[in-house]
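Need a sequence for this fold. Nothing fancy.
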């Protein structure tokens, strides 16, 4: 009679424990649906671990003879649920995987764009007056070579005609097609937009006799939100020293989700990243800038159809202090590729941009 009662009691304990575990398993599936993912995730993980720990305690028995049996049952049940009690991470991962598998399909929640929407994306701003110009590309033209020796003039280093600077100096690219890094900013400037500016400046001087400055002052690391304010100071310094320039470029790259396709095209057999202009129509110099940018787009479409991004110009009303485009009739903001392009692709683009600038400055009569 006593032995049967003990066996019955043990069976009841086991049944109760299994049911409790199943209840917790079902509960952890329900909780995330009503959870605030970022703020409540930690408390849910703690609850889950605590509940499992307390439930496992139900398997403990004062009888040494029954302990091994209960232990085997305990591990069998937990293994069935995919939980290794000796590895707490496996407990937490059961819950985390639910969140991962049930995230929305919105691109902004899947990588770079989400981060850049908050602090990183230079053009995802609180500016409601945004419009896009989409131009047609005439691919019937033959593609020109990368260099035109007829455009070369005598270099005068004392009179720089082109200024390149970078409000978001550490914006970077992939090292290669095999690069799986999710870091889209890099203080190694040879991996980012500064390197593209360097390619343009050096090619302008070497092949076209156009003195150029590529400023690598870092504006965005300490206080990202103040990037344009800081770069405006840099620009004013050069304007004070040299007066105006024939072309002033704030050089950036676009920010896109990690799963966004790599925007590129082939020119003369090599991969090149695409180019887009960003302008502010509310700034007092917009009319003159529009004429200059339209001319450069025309040169690009004639010589290198497909080099321009399909948007060609992304137009804001004001942006952040007009992106300092109110400082000169010749100021512009150019995006070369995006964070999914390789550094080789964007450096190739830099060579073609150099030719376009040379055509604009030395080829126009």
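Here you go.
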């Amino acid at each position: 009679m006593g032995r049967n009662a003990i066996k019955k009691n043990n069976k009841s304990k086991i049944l109760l424990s299994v049911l409790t575990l199943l209840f917790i398993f079902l509960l952890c599936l329900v909780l995330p649906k009503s959870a605030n993912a970022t703020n409540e995730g930690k408390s849910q993980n703690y609850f889950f671990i605590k509940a499992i720990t307390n439930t496992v305690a139900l398997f403990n028995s004062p009888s040494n003879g029954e302990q091994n049996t209960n232990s085997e049952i305990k591990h069998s049940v937990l293994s069935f649920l995919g939980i290794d009690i000796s590895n707490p991470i496996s407990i937490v991962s059961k819950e985390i995987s639910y969140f991962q598998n049930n995230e929305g399909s919105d691109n902004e929640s899947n990588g770079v764009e989400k981060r850049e929407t908050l602090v990183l994306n230079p053009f995802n701003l609180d500016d409601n007056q945004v419009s896009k110009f989409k131009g047609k590309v005439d691919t019937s033209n033959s593609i020109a070579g990368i260099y035109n020796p007829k455009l070369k003039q005598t270099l005068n280093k004392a009179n720089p005609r082109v200024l390149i600077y970078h409000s978001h100096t550490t914006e970077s690219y992939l090292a290669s097609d095999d690069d799986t890094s999710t870091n889209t900013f890099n203080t190694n400037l040879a991996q980012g937009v500064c390197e593209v500016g360097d390619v343009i400046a050096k090619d302008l001087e070497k092949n076209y006799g156009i003195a150029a400055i590529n400023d690598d002052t870092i504006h965005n690391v300490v206080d990202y939100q103040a990037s344009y304010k800081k770069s405006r100071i840099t620009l004013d310094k050069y304007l004070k020293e040299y007066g105006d320039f024939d072309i002033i470029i704030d050089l950036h790259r676009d920010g896109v989700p990690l799963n966004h396709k790599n925007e590129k095209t082939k020119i003369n057999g090599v991969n090149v990243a695409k180019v887009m202009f960003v302008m502010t129509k509310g700034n007092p110099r917009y009319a003159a800038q529009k004429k200059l940018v339209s001319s450069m787009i025309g040169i690009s479409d004639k010589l290198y159809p497909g080099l321009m991004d399909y948007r060609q110009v992304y137009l804001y009303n004001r942006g952040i202090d007009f992106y300092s485009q109110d400082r000169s009739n010749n100021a512009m903001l150019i995006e070369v590729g995006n964070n999914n392009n390789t550094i080789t692709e964007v450096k190739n683009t830099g060579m073609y941009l150099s030719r376009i600038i040379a055509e604009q400055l030395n080829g126009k009569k």
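For context: Residues 30-141 have pLDDT under 50 and may be disordered.
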